[in-house]
Amino acid sequence: MGAAIPQERVTDSTEQGSTQAIRSLLIVDCGSVFTKVALLGRVDGRFRMLARAQSLTTNMPPITDVLVGVRHALSEIERTTGCTLQRDQHIILPMREDGTGVDGVALVMSAGGPLHLLTTGPGRDHLAALVLRSLGGLFISVEALPVLSARPQPPSMDTAFSQARLRQPHALLVVGQPFGEVRPSVTLEEATTAISDWIARLNDTGLAAGQRTPVVFTGSAREAERLAPPLRDRVAMQVVEGLSPSTLTPLNRAVSALYEPVVLSTLPGFAALRQVASAPPIATITALAGMVRFLAQRFETNVVGVDVGASSTALAGSTAQGEFLPALHPSAGVGPGIGTLLRARGAAGAMQWLAILATEDELREYALMRMLRPTMLPLTTRELEFEYAFAREAIQLALRAPGARLAGMHPMDVVLGTGGVLANVPHPAHAALLLLDALQPRGITALMLDTAQLASMIGSGAALDAVRIGEAAISDAIGTQLATVISPVGEVAQGEPVVRVTLEFASGHQHEEEVHAGAIARLPLPVGEQAILGLYPAPGVDIGLGPGQHAHGSEPVEGGPLGLVVDARGRPLRFPQDREARAMRLLEWRRTLGLEG
Amino acid sequence: MTGKVVDVAPGRWVTIEGAATLVHGVLGLGGPVAGPFARLPRGDSPLVAPIIPGSILIIPGQLRLTVMQRAAAGGAVGIIAGSAQARELEAFARADLSVLLDDLVPSAASLPLTVMLTEGLGSASMNATAQQLLAQRGNDIVLLSGYTEPHRNLRPEVAMPLPLGSPTHPLPLDGVISAGARVYVIAGERAGGHGVVTHVFARRQFIANGLLVPCAMLRFDDGTTAMEPLHTLQRIG
């Protein structure tokens, strides 16, 4: 399986030119649990998604070849569309005159996990903020390499090394001396010793025998000259410019370039999959970031994309001015990544979101069984409740992850939910409440749901044909507008009026409603209808225009399945301490949005 | 173990090639051990029944902490049970299960005995097939490993060697669920049931909680038919 070169080409070109117009495209997203494949092509002159299928990712026993899962999904697409995409288990490239095959294949990867990076060096602590800012938005996890200060090493160092080795680090980052008279916590010589010891221990276990460990050094050329000789022949060192607020890109590029050769190349079957790809593979967060930036630029508005995955949670924000604000937790999700949530937030964290009474033990056992059976989906309403509680926790953890910059973004004009957890909700209110609870936006926000689950895939195709990918993104990845949400913020006593809302419909009909503190209100604005919105907040309450400022729209707002929602619960959300009272409050909010409880 | 020695690393290991029946569990703890099965006499409580040193106990129901502690004190080398509560298993292992499953600390090799749970955490009883397979093997020496690493799909297992020359029935490698496949239901209301897939739905179907998921229609061994989500099915033939 997967031994043959899996494409059938009529030309020798291995990668399609970026300026060539494509007629059809396959996007393959190898996730940690599921492999998703989307087929894009022309419909009535526009580039659209034609079909989508998913299969289990086959990167571990009993099937250790990612291509097998891809072929299963491709076969499903062939069955549903009638298109022929493979011949003799080879993807037909490029598209033939008879309509078989595709013009390109784009890859999105999160199977294989993030790039695990260990950091050391004189500037590691002082320049930590710049390191995280430089690496923000990359699919990486960053941890500190244990520092050795004494010889012989104390026994605790063995534990530290063992624990670091269990994380299976892929590469080392050495941060050079910061500018100025700063006393470093580690000298360059100590960092060199730590790296030497680290590599020796890796060789002891046979993990890195015969391999040269990738090391990225960011600092001055003079320091690099001191660092290099002791490590020569033992590491593959790359030196990049020292870190400063204006030189973040070189480090980002150097580390980003390691993802494919160091992480992806170890995935069984990846080499064969890579051969059919028409562009370098990118991580899910990178693809989502591309989509969000495109939308922000195109519509000149602030956009946030949210993808809660099985093993990682990715959020990407982009302002209308083009500022990129990522928030990624590379190991927290609702499948295999749920263990990270348990350790970071505890079952008690997820319990605050439950509208049912459950014990901490029950929630913990559910989470542990999700780790044990990653492909299992919630089967009962109770399990679904647990799943969405953990999804809220995953988003909040990502917002607080090292290097995350999204939490302070205001306003969140558009929030786009994507990925299996959000896109497959039984009722749109589940997705809306999940996003509102976890993100707690302020002011006016359009909540969108990418039911096609394309938003975190489609960015990978931009390198092949940005124009057509843009067409498909707008047509199919933005999906459904769930609701326009007004989130007033201000100190108002529970039950007191927060805002008066008016809707003026084209028919001349008017609707007016007063919303009270602590409540969620749902105003009638169905799908396909528009209305002029008027907002009259109580004194001191901010609807995004400043405290007490009222608004009367010049442009109509769009309706959605949930109409117009006013979230007057306050920021941050506060819950009753009593479990039953809290559950009652959550049920009340859900019923307002049309959920039965 | 019955088999043929195919490789020897002096002082380290031998590799034995042979046929065996493998029963996989969902969760386990502890390293590999070997020993004969020991069943409790019918009607005896595991809290009072004698423990045979060196044996592997079979507890068809939920495994309690007191039983684990008693078995360890009595010299048993392993336990195969239906399920256990997470809290009790963690108390026995003195470790956080999420940490063990994510392989963030070296596995609990220092445990006094090895544990395998066929159904995982909770209170479920061992499925009938596993019970039947274990019951068939009398007091044979078997190999039990509790090593569990979900990130690499490594599961606890008990290997029960077959006599040399025994016919074997390999399972389909890819586990694809299609019409005619014999399956076992691992979760939900029909958990533990066996049946044959009559057809796989081309479109996703609604299940009880409102989710749309891929499903198959099953004819169970008791003659009933029901729709089951594909992710709850495990192919066994």
Short key terms for the protein model shown above:
heterodimer, A: 597 residues, alpha/beta, Ubiquitin-like (UB roll), Rossmann fold, eight-stranded mixed beta sheet, five-stranded mixed beta sheet, globular, disordered N terminus, B: 237 residues, mainly beta, Glucose Oxidase, domain 1, SH3 type barrels, 2 domains, five-stranded antiparallel beta sheet, 4 helices
Task: Write a structural description.
- The complex is a heterodimer of chains A (597) and B (237).
- With 597 residues, chain A is an alpha/beta fold.
- Among the domains of chain A are: 7-11 and 18-111 and 275-280, Ubiquitin-like (UB roll) (Roll), CATH 3.10.20; 115-266, Flavodoxin domain (Rossmann fold, 3-Layer(aba) Sandwich), CATH 3.40.50.360; 485-597, no CATH class.
- Chain A has 17 helices and 28 strands.
- In chain A, helix 4 (188-205) runs parallel beside helix 5 (221-231), helix 10 (338-351) crosses helix 12 (381-399) and helix 12 (381-399) packs parallel to helix 14.
- With 237 residues, chain B is mainly beta.
- Chain B has two domains: 4-161, Glucose Oxidase, domain 1 (3-Layer(bba) Sandwich), CATH 3.50.30; 182-235, SH3 type barrels.
- Chain B has four helices and 17 strands.
- Chain B has an eight-stranded mixed sheet with strand order 3-10-9-5-6-7-8-4, with helices on both faces. A five-stranded antiparallel sheet of chain B has the order 16-15-12-11-17, with no helix packed on it. In chain B, strands 1-2 form a two-stranded antiparallel ribbon.
- In chain B, a hairpin with a 3-residue loop joins strand 1 (4-9) and strand 2.
- The longest helix of chain B has 9 residues, at 65-73.
- The two termini of chain B are 26 Å apart.
- The mean pLDDT of chain B is 90.
- The chains are: A alpha/beta (597), B mainly beta (237).
- The interface between A and B is large, with 40 and 42 residues.
